[in-house]
């Protein structure tokens, strides 16, 4: 693969994960409330990972983890990541990207979550005098109050203004239908779907006209996978039968959901969301009633299953 393709893949990953993920839920993830039994959730109350956490952040853990160890220690494993000094500079940059997302996007300033459960959540730390202190999330949302300032990244403008080109110019639905690609709807209409190494489906878009101040969002419902090895679930639109060799530098790439090993947890069950309106516009599919969604499993031979695929409008 050429250096230019690798560069554009990195730029597009940043663009799709930060620029198009314009709401707090898409960027940061959804609510995880105390008392929720994660072993007994459904797609209606499942946790929601955001593009910052499960996309960009987790990818770096994987890239830096040692592939010669069983669980990618140190950075590539949830239980050992903090042993690597890079962990701290990495998480500082994650915090910087949060600041960029809030204040430096083309569509203007963006808003954090306003749910009281988020703002009033408390964490226990030891201060510089070894005294235990409680800190609320609402106490640390303003970096200026913390005395934290980030210099503007010299290359931020490159990925913020990246314009992913379309590699296709017409709907892939007719080709997919002739090739036997199934129509998949929202859960629970489908049962459990095993992705294998890759899976393609035809998914209906909303029939009503898009309301103002909304985003068109794809939800991959009920993603389930064991946490004993690294797994990446890569999503595309309008590319039937995409594989691990399909490049991610074009508008057809929606994003990657990365899962690092965690010995303390046997499995992960979650929903994954991507804003797809920008992608469809770039490809020229705004008027199509259905689109082809393809999912590719990379990183390992882990078994990944889903419960459904849904495209709907969500408030900005």
Automatic annotation (TrEMBL):
GO terms for molecular function: catechol oxidase activity; metal ion binding. The keyword Lipid metabolism does not apply. InterPro entries: Di-copper_centre_dom_sf, Hemocyanin/hexamerin, Polyphenol_oxidase_C, Polyphenol_oxidase_cen, Tyrosinase/Hemocyanin, Tyrosinase_Cu-bd. Residues 84-95 form the Tyrosinase copper-binding domain. Keywords: Copper, Disulfide bond, Metal-binding, Oxidoreductase, Thioether bond. Its cofactor is Cu(2+). PROSITE patterns: HEMOCYANIN_2, TYROSINASE_2. It holds the Pfam family Tyrosinase. Belongs to the tyrosinase family. This is Tyrosinase copper-binding domain-containing protein.
């Amino acid at each position: 693969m050429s250096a230019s393709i690798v560069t554009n893949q990195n730029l597009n990953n940043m663009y799709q994960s930060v620029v198009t993920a314009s709401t707090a839920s898409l960027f940061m993830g959804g609510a995880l409330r105390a008392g929720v039994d994660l072993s007994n959730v459904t797609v209606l109350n499942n946790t929601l990972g955001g593009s910052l956490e499960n996309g960009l952040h987790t990818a770096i853990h994987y890239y830096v983890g040692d592939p010669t160890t069983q669980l990618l220690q140190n950075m590539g494993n949830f239980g050992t990541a903090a042993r690597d000094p890079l962990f701290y500079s990495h998480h500082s940059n994650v915090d910087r990207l949060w600041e960029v997302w809030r204040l430096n996007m083309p569509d203007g300033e963006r808003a954090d979550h306003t749910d009281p459960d988020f703002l009033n959540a408390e964490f226990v730390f030891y201060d510089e005098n070894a005294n235990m202190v409680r800190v609320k999330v609402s106490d640390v949302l303003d970096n200026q109050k913390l005395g934290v300032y980030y210099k503007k990244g010299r290359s931020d403008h490159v990925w913020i203004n990246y314009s992913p080109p379309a590699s296709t110019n017409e709907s892939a639905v007719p080709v997919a239908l002739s090739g036997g690609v199934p129509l998949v709807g929202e859960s629970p209409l489908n049962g459990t779907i095993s992705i294998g190494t890759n899976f393609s489906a035809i998914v209906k878009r909303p029939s009503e006209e898009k309301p103002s101040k909304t985003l068109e969002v794809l939800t991959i419902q009920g993603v389930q996978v064991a946490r004993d090895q690294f797994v990446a679930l890569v999503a595309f639109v309008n590319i039937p039968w995409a594989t691990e060799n399909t490049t991610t530098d074009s508008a057809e790439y929606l994003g990657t959901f990365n899962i690092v090993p965690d010995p303390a947890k046997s499995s992960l069950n979650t929903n994954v969301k991507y804003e797809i309106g920008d992608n469809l516009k770039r490809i020229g599919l705004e008027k199509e009633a259905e689109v082809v969604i393809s999912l590719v499993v990379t990183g390992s031979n882990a078994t990944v299953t889903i419960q459904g695929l849904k495209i709907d409008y969500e408030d900005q």
